[in-house]
Design a protein that fits this description.
Layout lengths: L1 H8 L3 H7 L10 E3 L2 E3 L22 H5 L6
Antiparallel strand pairs: 1-2
Organism: Frankia casuarinae (strain DSM 45818 / CECT 9043 / HFP020203 / CcI3)
Protein name: Maturase
Length: about 70
């Protein structure tokens, strides 16, 4: 994302570092045009859950209609 910002806004690494630092030397969140990139490590991950029939199908009529016979 930083390289995209550098290309889009023509900023150098020095300008990016200055942009992402607080006056006291801490780090700021990456925010551009009102959108903030959040810390991905804070997103909970739930794996291997049985979903059964909860997965929607893009072809509801094709699966519920009569089967063609030859």
């Amino acid at each position: 994302m930083i390289r995209w910002v550098m290309h889009r806004h023509r900023r150098s690494w020095t300008a990016i570092r200055r942009w992402l630092r607080t006056p006291h030397g801490g780090r700021k969140d990456i925010e551009l045009d009102g959108m903030t990139l959040f810390h991905l490590g804070q997103v909970p991950i739930t794996r291997y859950r049985y979903r059964g029939g909860n997965i929607p199908t893009p072809w509801p009529d094709a699966l519920t209609g009569p089967t063609p016979t030859a």
